Amino acid sequence: MITFIFDNKSAIPMYEQLYRFIKGEISSGSIKSGEKLPSKRKLAEHLNISIVTVEGAYNQLLAEGYIRSEPRSGYFVSPVEIRHNDNKNIVSTKSAENRVISNFYKYNFTTSSASAESFPFSLWAKLMRETLSEKERMLLLSSPAQGVYELRKEISEYLMNYRGVSVSPDSIVVGAGSEYLMSIMIPLIGRDKVFGYEDPGYPRIHKVLERNDVKCKSVGLDEHGLICEELDDIDVIHVTPSHHFPLGVVMPVQRRMKLLAWANKSDSRYVIEDDYDSEFRFTGKPIPALKSLDEHDKVIYLNTFTRSLAPSLRISYMVLPDSLINKYRNETNYFSCPVPTFEQFTLASFMRKGGFERHIGRMKNICKSKRDAFVNEITKSSINATFSGVNDGLHMLMQVNNSMTEKELVKAAASVNILMRGLSEYYIEPHAHKCPESTVVIGYAGLEEQEIHDAVKLLEKAWK
Amino acid sequence: MITFIFDNKSAIPMYEQLYRFIKGEISSGSIKSGEKLPSKRKLAEHLNISIVTVEGAYNQLLAEGYIRSEPRSGYFVSPVEIRHNDNKNIVSTKSAENRVISNFYKYNFTTSSASAESFPFSLWAKLMRETLSEKERMLLLSSPAQGVYELRKEISEYLMNYRGVSVSPDSIVVGAGSEYLMSIMIPLIGRDKVFGYEDPGYPRIHKVLERNDVKCKSVGLDEHGLICEELDDIDVIHVTPSHHFPLGVVMPVQRRMKLLAWANKSDSRYVIEDDYDSEFRFTGKPIPALKSLDEHDKVIYLNTFTRSLAPSLRISYMVLPDSLINKYRNETNYFSCPVPTFEQFTLASFMRKGGFERHIGRMKNICKSKRDAFVNEITKSSINATFSGVNDGLHMLMQVNNSMTEKELVKAAASVNILMRGLSEYYIEPHAHKCPESTVVIGYAGLEEQEIHDAVKLLEKAWK
């Protein structure tokens, strides 16, 4: 029978601990394909936990296809070819790799690991129930193409109060994730345009541009962010001025003005401001968005709730300049908004009632103290490291001065069960732009403070 | 020295009031570029506030690049030109023409008007509540790219039982609407391919293809559906074999085999089977999908729950052939599924518990009796009309033999407060394919039987 010791002190719910354990056993082959799992009741008795916990774990395994249920017979481990698909994913895509590989590491310092424990699930569930009874059959009507007005109004107020951006709800388009919005936006701008992206940067952006079959070109960064001199033969540039990923640079106002001046030079030029992570500024107040300086309506503002709320909520939005919003209305309005009205109403009510603001505040405190814990532990330790990009966002850079190369650092960390990525992995055209040496990207949002403490102890040994 | 009166009653923190004030002075040019700011201590004394407040304001200005700090020398205004951006034009919304127009008519016979009254909202709400309490925090996890396994399993069983299609849940990709799935599918097939579409047909399909910037070509229909002889220079054809929109043709098996034979002739050829409305066959049993005859894995099957459940539920799915599903996994798996896990779990449970089957059965009865009501009322009336495409789907064609042209029929109907569309409106290249004369498209799902009765009385007068 599956035997497993729960960590009662962990913030990870018990069902999830059990789910992770069984998934690990299946992935490693300890539980073989076709094998029958114990019944929920038996396993609950055996582990002295409630049936609901076992059920939660089994349901997740079912949902992910690791096991299958046979009526009146029980739960069986799925045949290998299903999991074989998972293995293919490991080879081919980084984010999938993250998800699967990360289960084999005890400590996951990649930036995709996020903290969901602080999400106010009970408030959210309450608002869902309220939406259900208040909106009733209205939930069956299709959403306006741009998204439900109530939500766009809340977003426009949020942008005014927190990002210094004054836009009408009418300029906002709600969509299911940034990739979706990019695929709406690109035909509006024109697929014949040259799209620039930051290098280093999110590999995902580069992939989305490639999938949309547009010409794209990488642009380097200096200590103030994007190098505007490299923009000459580019029409549209995707930037993260609030907090560059992964360098953590906050673009100063001079560079912002320079970037806008570049955009103003031609009608066909646009700046796509990806304001991801802007909620997580730990020192001082958030820096207003580039969009707030945009006098000539050249900035397309893009942000998402997926990162600040929960990964299952694929709700993103963009603010389109007048020229594009009119084109959007004429050409794309026959589309329906892909986000269900139910989630849109719930989120609007969450924002209206201050839940979003409180959640961000709470998240900021949690993440700030995790960040402090990491920096303090490293500083106290024998590791000689230099940090950058520590004031904002959910990751930082750490240059380790122990004469190990980046690859050696990552490998040594892996040898003590710690997953992290080298900075060079985020360079899309490594030959064009020089990567700082011996630097790793640290995402700390997914770890508990105690785990951070333990992990640094291990790193100290590994990096000796 | 900077002089400024704080608003003690304001909810804005003092440091932020000061920051805003200084920023305004810099932006307006009252404090000039290069000018030295007072030291923190001096300004604090002058304004009778704490040094911490001044520090907060200066740090924010520093972070945004409005000022710079020079060691042992002080704070200086950075050289930059910034202008105010407070008053921006607010765009007025032009709502979708269709939705506004339809509000001016008492009776709406367009096909976009659908019946939501039979949707089992209370069962759905109950399942939503169950999902909420059963899945709990699991709802916060991101959905696998292809969609939640539980839902894909239900879809695969539905396809087996109702459409004669045997596919593994692993070949199914869940997405938010057909447009979304098309935009995922097209790059997999290749944007260099020539895409064919039925003419007449859904204008939406043609638009989606155009938006994806692929070469496309219209293909005509005869009484058996798509004319295969027109497919020679086409790679991928979008068809609605179960029930052509708007002609209502059900493609007979000979034509289906001919279409598959065409597809089998080249590796790069595919058929996109859009199986929309296939649930609503009133006479006899449903005709198996084209996909069920597809021995060489050349058919991409596409269907949606939006029409059969509720317009707000943007849940569609496609079945990809092996060649494409592998490509999908390698290239697109870093995408997240845009449909929230909450809706996916709820729909899976709705299907598992037989709710979907019962709902379709009920809808069929309701729509069948609406169809009968319309046909009977017309037959009893003085209107001399011929129907076609009445056995399936939620619309039919009506040719009116009163020597009025199509345009005159539509206009006369409008004069008595009735909205309907002429068949010619669905011809994308009207010169290439000949449209039957004096024919209107009747969508009856959105009207009550009494309304149908009243509307026909009005039509009788209008078409005299």
How would you characterize this protein structure?
The structure is a homodimer of 464-residue chains. The first copy, chain A, has helices at residues 14-28, 40-47, 51-63, 80-92, 94-101, 121-135, 149-163, 178-189, 203-211, 253-264, 322-332, 341-352, 355-380, 406-415, 449-462, and strands spanning 67-70, 74-77, 107-108, 172-175, 194-198, 215-219, 221-222, 225-226, 236-239, 270-274, 299-304, 316-319, 385-388, 395-400, 418-419, 421-422, 439-443. With 464 residues, chain A is of the alpha/beta class. In chain A, the strands form five sheets. In chain A, strands 4-12-11-10-9-5-6 form a seven-stranded mixed sheet, sandwiched between helices. Chains A and B meet through helix 3, helix 4, helix 5, helix 6 and helix 8 of A and helix 3, helix 5, helix 7, helix 8 and helix 10 of B.
Short account of what is shown:
The structure is a homodimer of 464-residue chains. With 464 residues, the first copy, chain A, is an alpha/beta fold.
Report the CATH architecture of the largest domain in chain A.
Answer: 3-Layer(aba) Sandwich
With strands numbered from the N-terminus, the spatial order across the biggest sheet of chain A is 4-12-11-10-9-5-6
CATH classification, class level of the largest domain in chain A: Alpha Beta
Find the CATH superfamily of the largest domain in chain A. Answer: Type I PLP-dependent aspartate aminotransferase-like (Major domain)
Number of H- or I-type helical stretches of chain A: 15
Detail the poorly predicted runs of chain A: 81-103
* Overall number of strands of chain A: 17
The radius of gyration over CA of chain A amounts to 23 Å
Strand fraction of chain A equals 5-15%
Any idea how many domains of chain A? Answer: 3
Percent helix of chain A, as a range, is: 40-55%
Structural class assignment of chain A: alpha/beta
Quaternary state reads: homodimer
CATH topology of the largest domain in chain A: Aspartate Aminotransferase, domain 2
Query: Main beta sheet of chain A, described?
Result: 7 strands, mixed
For the residues shown, what is the average pLDDT of chain A?
85
Overall geometry of chain A: globular
